[in-house]
């Protein structure tokens, strides 16, 4: 009886040890995720909130973000939150919007495993986007799987966020949606680096960095015939608002293998790293269409010709 009792105690001690070990591991992963995300959006608000945990499910999931820390309250009470579901009946054509002007240049880049997403940081001189006559410099890009924004009720396989920042600290994000299909050329040139990042993860290096070297981003700036524009927020805590969002209208393709490569370095808790859609709260989602703009220009040109 004594032996049986001793074995029972040992069993419970062994079980509790492993359970506590797993809990500590998960807490460390979530903590690493927060620190990594704080680096994504370098703002004073983030500096004050380092060390607070957030995730994509359970007690630290999106529905709880606003209650995890006082600096995260915008996640719960903000009226300009992102992402959103872009519904056709809620969009407005704005003839004053101009063609998206982006100038990107080859520059040194680093691929980073942020535990909760894969990101690429650029060195100086990566290029700019001009929105409302204001220059925003490309800082980094990262991916979400599946997409955070929905288009006419459809959620896609992946979403790329190209994060730009102006001199005054404000953000502009240009987002591309991806469906499963042919290989995406930009990711294709990084395949070996993504595999390397995945290997580092299996070695236990959860926040690995892989030097990419000089990478050409120019083809990403391809001509955009349609885009959606609205004012939103960061899609991760602290969910800061007044972010200028541009969602490209053309849904691009990415192979299933590429989606899995983007997920492979991440912990299982973050392989689905998309925040649910937020209420529009009466915001205007404006649409740019190149063809409509061209028609207006042609009409104006004809009038000028007739008058002369």
Automatic annotation (TrEMBL):
<dbReference type="GO" id="GO:0006730">
    <property type="term" value="P:one-carbon metabolic process"/>
</dbReference>
<dbReference type="InterPro" id="IPR036398">
    <property type="entry name" value="CA_dom_sf"/>
</dbReference>
<dbReference type="InterPro" id="IPR023561">
    <property type="entry name" value="Carbonic_anhydrase_a-class"/>
</dbReference>
<comment type="function">
    <text>Reversible hydration of carbon dioxide.</text>
</comment>
<keyword id="KW-0325">Glycoprotein</keyword>
<dbReference type="GO" id="GO:0008270">
    <property type="term" value="F:zinc ion binding"/>
</dbReference>
<keyword id="KW-0456">Lyase</keyword>
<feature type="domain" description="Alpha-carbonic anhydrase">
    <location>
        <begin position="52"/>
        <end position="289"/>
    </location>
</feature>
<dbReference type="InterPro" id="IPR041891">
    <property type="entry name" value="Alpha_CA_prokaryot-like"/>
</dbReference>
<keyword id="KW-0479">Metal-binding</keyword>
<comment type="similarity">
    <text>Belongs to the alpha-class carbonic anhydrase family.</text>
</comment>
<protein>
    <recommendedName>
        <fullName>Carbonic anhydrase</fullName>
        <ecNumber>4.2.1.1</ecNumber>
    </recommendedName>
</protein>
<dbReference type="GO" id="GO:0004089">
    <property type="term" value="F:carbonate dehydratase activity"/>
</dbReference>
<keyword id="KW-0862">Zinc</keyword>
<dbReference type="GO" id="GO:0009570">
    <property type="term" value="C:chloroplast stroma"/>
</dbReference>
<dbReference type="Pfam" id="PF00194">
    <property type="entry name" value="Carb_anhydrase"/>
</dbReference>
<dbReference type="InterPro" id="IPR001148">
    <property type="entry name" value="CA_dom"/>
</dbReference>
<keyword id="KW-0732">Signal</keyword>
<comment type="similarity">
    <text>Belongs to the alpha-carbonic anhydrase family.</text>
</comment>
<dbReference type="InterPro" id="IPR018338">
    <property type="entry name" value="Carbonic_anhydrase_a-class_CS"/>
</dbReference>
């Amino acid at each position: 009886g004594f032996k049986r009792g001793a074995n029972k105690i040992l069993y419970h001690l062994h079980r509790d040890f492993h359970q506590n070990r797993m809990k500590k591991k998960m807490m460390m992963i979530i903590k690493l995720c927060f620190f990594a995300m704080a680096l994504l959006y370098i703002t004073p608000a983030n500096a004050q909130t380092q060390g607070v945990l957030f995730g994509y499910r359970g007690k630290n999931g999106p529905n709880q973000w606003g209650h995890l820390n006082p600096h995260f309250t915008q996640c719960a009470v903000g009226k300009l939150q992102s992402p959103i579901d872009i519904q056709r009946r809620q969009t407005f054509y704005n003839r004053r919007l101009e063609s998206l002007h982006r100038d990107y240049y080859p520059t040194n880049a680093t691929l980073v495993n942020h535990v909760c997403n894969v990101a690429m940081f650029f060195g100086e001189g990566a290029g700019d986007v001009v929105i409302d006559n204001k220059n925003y410099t490309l800082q980094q890009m990262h991916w979400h799987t599946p997409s955070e924004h929905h288009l006419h009720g459809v959620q896609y396989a992946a979403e790329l966020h190209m994060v730009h920042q102006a001199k005054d600290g404000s953000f502009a994000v240009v987002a591309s949606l991806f469906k499963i299909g042919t290989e995406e050329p930009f990711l294709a040139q990084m395949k070996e680096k993504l595999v390397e990042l995945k290997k580092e993860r299996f070695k236990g290096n959860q926040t690995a960095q892989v030097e990419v070297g000089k990478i050409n981003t120019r083809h990403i700036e391809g001509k955009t015939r349609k885009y959606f524009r609205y004012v939103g927020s960061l899609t991760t805590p602290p969910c800061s608002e007044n972010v200028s969002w541009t969602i490209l209208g053309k849904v691009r393709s990415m192979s299933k293998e590429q989606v899995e490569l983007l997920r492979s370095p991440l912990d299982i808790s973050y392989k689905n790293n998309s925040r649910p859609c937020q209420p529009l709260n009466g915001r205007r989602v404006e649409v740019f269409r190149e063809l409509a703009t061209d028609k207006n220009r042609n009409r104006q040109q004809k009038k000028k010709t007739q008058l002369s």
